[in-house]
């Protein structure tokens, strides 16, 4: 074990010899097999070996980490950008304790994309706001994220800020970095289509984008739209050349067989293969109003936001079982199966009642062989319907993971340590489905509240309402506005009527 610390076992040393010279994400594990640190590397062989070199100077926290490392695993990716984005997803899922201890809060950064604005921009921020923009992250290195965006901007041009009053294309447009929206060089729809591909790349769908560009290039060339075909070709070549770009060097789409959580899940439930597409469902409402449901999708264990769907239930009432039944029945309709495909595993946010309602809908739709499980909030118990979940609990794996079970006539309740990779994955899916459902419910609730206060006021039409909300930010802001401000904005007559109704 020449050159390595005395802490390196023969098994680990043998593994270190097999490290590849490619970019990737690595997982340090303790003696119990728990992932305690996730990191990224431009060259896995160099980066991972650095932890165990005797000559390497380390701070006390890193020394403590190295002292606990009993095993290491890794996932190879094609580019440093892929490693950067995959690392963030893995840290969010596993929440390794040393990532929390070693991180510098000042370096955490998010990518902010104002996709739905009339002038979409892409930027970085350390503090996400509830402003309608889409946020991705957090990422552990602000410098690496900015370098990544710099490279991606050459492939998917985007604006970083809006210059008030500008009507001519700026310098960045002529450099091929800006869409030129203000001068009409690109339409808003074309710009958003470009942003969708940027978002898809950030979410880890590089291979999918390459296939789309190849298809677009051939289609455009066949239609003799040679300028557009050349643009698609240039984007394609730039994406393929990202393997040569340096993002973070050695300063610091997934191979599914290396995903620890998916492996544990497959073994525990005796699934025929690792579930490539897992769908999570949740219902959200407030006292039976604005009832909605969410469908989130994890492909190969990673969020696939382009596949998310939301449902507005046909009835507004306080009955989660009914709402879940309706949602699954609609999801498994012939039309949606044809458009979205079938999941390999479905996770229901809830206990016995919600899972039973979902399974009844599945059976009525004719897909009895689809595995369905639940995750109950209080104890984070995995809920299995004995005759109908279409899974087979492996007791050897259950005990190996340190778990136990309890049974009723129809259900098995599985308790596992919250530190297991499997539970962290299911929690991530459950929390994401909850977040997505609540965000949609909030949108509908806001629209309804806005309607009840402004839409029924005489003389306040759609354009005046839009002007009021744009100026004062919300209905509450309109209510708090001074009379003189309202008169200046919409006139004395309308302001007087508006005041009377708001009172």
Question: What is the element layout, followed by pairings?
Answer:
Layout: H1 10-17, E1 24-29, E2 35-41, H2 44-50, H3 60-68, E3 71-76, H4 80-94, H5 97-102, E4 109-113, E5 122-125, E6 134-139, H6 142-155, H7 171-174, H8 188-202, H9 206-222, H10 226-240, H11 260-268, E7 277-286, E8 289-299, E9 302-303, E10 309-312, H12 320-331, H13 334-340, E11 345-349, H14 352-365, E12 372-376, E13 381-385, H15 395-400, E14 404-407, E15 411-415, H16 421-455, H17 462-472, H18 475-480, H19 483-490, H20 492-502
Parallel strand pairs: 7-11, 11-12
Antiparallel strand pairs: 1-2, 1-3, 4-5, 4-6, 7-8, 8-9, 8-10, 12-13, 13-15, 14-15
Helix pairs in contact: 9-10, 11-16, 12-14, 19-20
- Overall pLDDT: 84
Overall shape: it is globular
What structural class do helix, strand and pairing data support? Answer: alpha+beta
- Cα distance spanning the termini: 80 Å
- What's the count of strands? 15
Largest β sheet strand count, sense and barrel closure = 9 strands, mixed
Q: Number of helix segments?
A: 20
Uncertain segments are: none
> What share of the residues does DSSP label as strand, in percent?
15-25%
Helix fraction by DSSP (H/I, runs of at least 4): 40-55%
Rg estimate, integer Å: 26 Å
Describe this structure in words.
The structure is a single chain. 46% of the residues lie in helices and 17% in strands. By secondary structure, the chain is an alpha+beta fold. The strands form three sheets. Strands 7, 8, 9, 10, 11, 12, 13, 14 and 15 form a nine-stranded mixed beta sheet that branches. A hairpin with a 4-residue loop joins strand 12 and strand 13 (381-385). Helix 9 (206-222) runs antiparallel to helix 10, helix 12 packs parallel to helix 14 and helix 19 crosses helix 20 (492-502).
